[in-house]
């Protein structure tokens, strides 16, 4: 019988002493960014001006207000007719500014796309749009309300202005995703500028355009309400502002918030359905 | 032919919607659009900061700084909370279906209450303090980020989680060692986007609640000190553009 006098052992090779670090450069940058944001947050919370507020009492009163808003909504001093009319104005304002904005933005986007127009033109348009976009919508509305007077016209122009700047960026980036070869080939075979856009580029980017337009639609609804509250357009935002800022009627605020929620959720469902419907067809 | 018919139908419908909206809003399309150039000229004449404007620079810069750090802190606080909600609510990591539905519904509720309503509700309890603006931005960001984080976690490859479970990792090990490191950079990208967004919204909240840079703008604007108001607009634009450029750089570096 052969016995193994000595069990065979395998010595695994000793790993070299160089540390294998899991921390790569992107990770390091990520940590630095999150760390510095954290520091700013702590600093900001520590120096937050609470205006001699007793936080406990404030949260308690918030609780009471929320309860009277959401559990006991009622109509207050306005009538259903007035509120529903104001709500339809808000929706109309949203539709109007989105449609007008999308229409104008598409034609500007054609000239802002690097693969369709010369670089200097595209860059100039993009820079101007970036500037317009960086100024909040509400400031545009306030600025236009001085020129045109408070009311619907200033609201529409201000909202449309910002929508155009937003959509030009989104649309032109979608257009730029069309392969250069397609455009070159069509140009070489003598197809004109606008036919290229409407026959070749537009059909292929419609889903992207639709989804950006719907995103802007939802933003515009929130903006339309804001404009009513801050710049006095005669829409639901104005009644919201009056009910909470002047009459202190939280039951009515609750009712208006419920109305806004209903519209926002309906918009979300409609846009999801339409997008799904379009994607299925193509 | 059918395609063309459908196209004309859609176009007709859009024009109809436009007409009805114009009537409801009472908007004069052509006379208003004709005023746009005049508006821009007026803007460039009156909103240009002049030699008197420099005296306003101190308070403006201070409020701009406060607004910036409040946008950041409200986003970060909301992000921490939404991370917990997102882990509880995402299909792949949720402990049970009840959590999923609750998180989804709650996020949708928070998101769809307009920031104006938040500002007005909070103003009554928290008065004219920075805290009102902070909370208004916080609640809205919470809604948005919970949804974005949930979707990001759900997009994650489910097989990796299964592999971790197969080697005997428990729930917390799965979440902290499997899910979070994987999604960290896309979550940070969302956080940066929300900071930009909140800086813009902070102006609106400020106008409504009388705090921060929005209040200062409203104050100068209503007092016809257009040069100072113009300086604020200019500085907000510069800050937003700087923030956009920085976050683009960061996004590229951590991708």
TrEMBL record, chain A:
Its main location: membrane. It comes from the Bacteria. CDD domains: TM_PBP2. It is a multi-pass membrane protein. InterPro entries: MetI-like (IPR000515), MetI-like_sf (IPR035906). The chain crosses the membrane at residues 28-46, 91-116, 137-161, 193-214, 221-241, 253-270. Keywords: Cell membrane, Membrane, Transmembrane, Transmembrane helix, Transport. Belongs to the binding-protein-dependent transport system permease family. This is PhnE/PtxC family ABC transporter permease. It comes from Lactiplantibacillus daoliensis.
């Amino acid at each position: 019988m052969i016995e193994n006098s000595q069990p065979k052992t395998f010595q695994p090779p000793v790993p070299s002493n160089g540390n294998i670090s899991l921390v790569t450069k992107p990770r390091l940058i990520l940590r630095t960014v999150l760390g510095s944001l954290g520091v700013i947050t702590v600093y900001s919370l520590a120096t937050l001006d609470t205006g001699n507020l007793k936080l406990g009492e404030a949260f308690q009163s918030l609780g009471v207000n929320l309860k009277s808003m959401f559990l006991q909504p009622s109509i207050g001093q306005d009538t259903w007719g007035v509120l529903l009319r104001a709500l339809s104005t808000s929706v109309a304002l949203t539709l109007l500014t989105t449609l007008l904005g999308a229409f104008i933005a598409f034609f500007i986007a054609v000239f802002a796309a690097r693969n369709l127009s010369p670089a200097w033109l595209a860059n100039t348009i993009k820079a101007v749009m970036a500037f317009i976009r960086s100024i909040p919508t509400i400031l545009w509305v306030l600025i236009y309300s001085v020129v045109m007077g408070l009311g619907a016209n200033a609201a529409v122009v201000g909202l449309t202005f910002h929508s155009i700047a937003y959509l030009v960026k989104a649309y032109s980036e979608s257009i730029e995703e069309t392969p250069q070869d397609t455009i070159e080939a069509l140009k070489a075979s003598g197809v004109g500028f606008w036919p290229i856009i409407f026959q070749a580029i537009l059909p292929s980017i419609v889903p992207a355009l639709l989804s950006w337009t719907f995103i802007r639609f939802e933003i515009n609804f929130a903006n339309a309400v804001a404009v009513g509250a801050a710049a006095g357009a005669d829409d639901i935002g104005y009644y919201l502002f009056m009910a909470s800022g002047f009459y202190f009627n939280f039951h009515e605020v609750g009712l208006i918030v419920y109305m806004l929620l209903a519209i926002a959720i309906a918009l979300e469902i409609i846009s999801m359905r339409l997008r799904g419907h379009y994607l299925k067809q193509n | 032919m059918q395609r063309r018919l459908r196209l004309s139908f859609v176009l007709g419908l859009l024009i109809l919607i436009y007409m009805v909206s114009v009537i409801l809003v009472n908007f004069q399309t052509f006379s208003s659009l004709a005023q746009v150039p005049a508006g821009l000229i007026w803007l460039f004449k009156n909103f240009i900061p002049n030699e008197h404007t420099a005296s306003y620079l101190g308070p403006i810069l201070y409020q701009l700084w406060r607004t910036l750090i409040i946008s950041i802190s409200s986003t970060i606080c909301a992000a921490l909370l939404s991370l917990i909600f997102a882990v509880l609510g995402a299909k792949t990591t949720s402990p049970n279906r009840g959590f999923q539905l609750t998180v989804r519904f709650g996020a949708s509720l928070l998101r769809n209450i307009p920031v104006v309503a938040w500002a007005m509700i909070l103003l009554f309890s928290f008065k004219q303090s920075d805290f009102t603006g902070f909370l208004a931005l916080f609640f809205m960001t919470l809604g948005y980020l919970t949804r974005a984080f949930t979707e990001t976690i759900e997009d994650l490859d489910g097989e990796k989680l299964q592999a971790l479970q197969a080697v005997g990792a428990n729930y917390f090990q799965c979440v902290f060692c499997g899910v979070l490191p994987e999604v960290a950079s896309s979550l940070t990208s969302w956080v940066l986007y929300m900071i930009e967004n909140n800086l813009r919204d902070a102006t609106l909240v400020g106008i409504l609640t009388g705090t921060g840079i929005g209040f200062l703008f409203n104050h100068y604007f209503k007092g016809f000190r257009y040069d100072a108001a113009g300086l604020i607009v200019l500085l907000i634009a510069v800050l937003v553009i700087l923030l956009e450029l920085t976050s683009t750089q960061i996004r590229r570096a951590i991708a």
